[in-house]
């Protein structure tokens, strides 16, 4: 019964959150009547540009633009969104100006104007939890009861990390300080941090788990409310500090320097610090060198992709936890097919179980292969590869697209990536993992915005199509 609730719940989420709303953007709006000459000049300039730039670039960025007005040597061109304007402005304005000048026969200027009625929504952040409390304590950590040492399957890919994590709980602050755990997404870093946290808390240590995003938010709030001293004080009392996904501190100088001071203070007091990241500390960029060197003071351990035997053991443990009887040939099939992280492994098994539950079909290898073939065909690009592809297309860094930056260009690229991942079959909560552990509702909202945008903004729609057709 419990099993069916879990699985049906997950499936319902998937169905309910599947479609975005169409009604977020204002539509229509009026424009100045097109001046015939502006129209003609721009059409001629577009003709030139069309042969100068790659076709996808033309289709994506230039095709839906219109010459609107021409006054003395200035041509006003209407573009469909602020993002297109910015893209053209930063990458192509010289080429555009040249093309227009060539058409008019004199040096011309081009002004890109965005439709005034186009509403671009920024990501919403949930309201601060302690907004009215002038002296908020550190948020209490609720450790995930699933993420324990007992439920962690040990194999050659993770045993070093596992035993180091255990050693850290046995003697916090003495064995390895800090312990730096790195490895790509879905391989159990957060699981280990929680395992350390709940065991340390059970043994009476004052322990705090915090994601880097949360840390950044709280630091920003402390600055805003002029509570910096308090903010730092809160950490002083800790005996174990677990900080997750520090790669998201990249480029945030102020937050890094606050963390650096807290780190030093805690380290001096023999507080155990455990850091998780998706890469070795040497590869964190842009990152404060002093902080990086602190990360290298203790022990650095890597978690890699589990091998076949470990994947089988993880699946069996997962099946056992949700009390599902899964034949061993089905386990073997999934362990062979799902090779991209533990999360995918568990997700694949959940899919097969859900389908069997819905259709009443027994759990067989044939069923698994039918379900997963479709799922993997849709996911032939790994989520990471899709995100890189989108970031490259929009010309922004991987850190920015995954991180918390809120400017329009970055938000749009991030939303596009999330929408593509959604279309590839990932659920909002799965997608959130790739974007700094954003929560499901934030992701679902971003996807809604992107999908509404795709319906009203043909340039955006074309970018998405282009992205879907680009090979990695
Ligand atoms: P990361 O933080 O590295 O992205 P998580 O810790 O969130 O990954 O792990 C993703 C999922 O995989 C979680 O459900 C976690 O419990 C599970 N998992 C990862 N590694 C193991 C393992 N060795 N044994 C059991 N479950 C694991
Ligand atoms: Mg994690």
Protein model, in words:
The chain is of the alpha/beta class and about 475 residues long. It has 4 domains: about 1-115, DnaA, N-terminal domain (GMP Synthetase, Chain A, domain 3, 2-Layer Sandwich), CATH 3.30.300.180; about 120-300, 3-Layer(aba) Sandwich (Rossmann fold); about 315-375, Orthogonal Bundle (Helicase, Ruva Protein, domain 3); about 385-470, DnaA protein, C-terminal DNA-binding domain (Chromosomal Replication Initiator Protein Dnaa, Chain: A). It is about 55% helix and about 10% strand. The chain has helices spanning about 1-15, 35-50, 55-60, 80-90, 95-105, 160-170, 190-200, 210-225, 230-235, 255-270, 290-295, 310-320, 330-335, 340-360, 365-380, 385-395, 400, 410-425, 430-435, 440-455, 460-470, and strands at about 65-70, 75-80, 110-115, 180, 205-210, 240-245, 270-275, 300. It has a 5-stranded parallel β-sheet with strand order 5-6-7-4-8, sandwiched between helices. A 3-stranded mixed β-sheet has the order 1-2-3. Strand 6, helix 10 (about 255-270) and strand 7 form a beta-alpha-beta unit. Helix 3 packs antiparallel against helix 21, helix 12 crosses helix 14 and helix 16 (about 385-395) runs antiparallel to helix 18. The longest helix has 19 residues, at about 340-360. Magnesium ion binds near residues 189, 190, 244 and 245.
């Amino acid at each position: 019964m419990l099993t069916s609730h879990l699985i049906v719940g997950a499936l319902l989420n998937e169905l309910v959150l599947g479609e975005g709303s169409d009604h977020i953007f204002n539509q229509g709006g009026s424009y100045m009547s097109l001046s015939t000459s502006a129209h003609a000049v721009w059409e001629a300039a577009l003709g030139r540009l069309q042969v100068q730039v790659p076709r996808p670039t033309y289709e994506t960025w230039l095709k839906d633009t219109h010459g609107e007005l021409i006054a003395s040597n200035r041509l006003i061109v209407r573009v469909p969104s602020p993002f297109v304007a910015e893209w053209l402005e930063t990458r192509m304005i010289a080429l555009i100006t040249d093309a227009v000048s060539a058409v008019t026969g004199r040096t011309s200027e081009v002004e890109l104007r965005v439709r005034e009625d186009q509403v671009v929504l920024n990501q919403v952040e949930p309201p601060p939890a302690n907004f009215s409390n002038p002296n908020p304590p550190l948020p209490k950590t609720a450790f995930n009861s699933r993420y324990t040492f007992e439920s962690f399957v040990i194999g050659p890919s993770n045993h070093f990390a596992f035993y180091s994590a255990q050693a850290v709980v046995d003697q916090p602050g003495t064995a390895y300080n800090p312990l730096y755990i790195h490895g790509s997404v879905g391989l159990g870093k957060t699981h280990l941090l929680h395992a350390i946290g709940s065991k340390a808390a059970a043994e009476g240590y004052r322990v705090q788990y915090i994601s880097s995003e949360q840390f950044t938010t709280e630091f920003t709030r402390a600055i805003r409310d002029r509570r910096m001293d308090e903010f730092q004080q809160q950490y002083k009392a800790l005996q174990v500090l677990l900080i997750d996904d520090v790669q998201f501190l990249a480029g945030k100088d102020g937050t890094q320097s606050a963390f650096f001071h807290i780190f030093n203070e805690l380290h001096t007091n023999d507080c155990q610090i455990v850091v998780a990241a998706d890469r070795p500390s040497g590869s964190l960029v842009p990152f404060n060198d002093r902080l990086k060197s602190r990360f290298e003071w203790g022990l650095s351990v890597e978690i890699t992709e589990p091998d076949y035997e470990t994947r089988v053991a993880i699946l069996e443990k997962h099946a056992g936890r949700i009390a599902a009887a899964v034949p061993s040939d089905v386990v073997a099939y999934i362990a062979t097919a799902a090779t991209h992280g533990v999360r995918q492994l568990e997700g694949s098994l959940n899919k097969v179980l859900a389908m069997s539950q819905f259709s009443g079909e027994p759990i067989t290898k044939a069923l698994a292969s039918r379900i997963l073939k479709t799922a993997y065909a849709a996911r032939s690009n790994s989520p990471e590869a899709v995100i890189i592809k989108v970031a490259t297309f929009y010309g922004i860094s991987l850190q920015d697209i995954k991180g918390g930056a809120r400017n329009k260009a970055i938000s749009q690229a991030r939303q596009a990536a999330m929408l593509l991942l959604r279309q590839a079959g990932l659920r909002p909560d799965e997608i959130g993992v790739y974007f700094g552990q954003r929560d499901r509702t934030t992701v679902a909202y971003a996807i809604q915005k992107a999908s509404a945008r795709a319906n009203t903004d043909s340039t955006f729609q074309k970018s998405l199509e282009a992205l879907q057709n680009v090979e990695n």
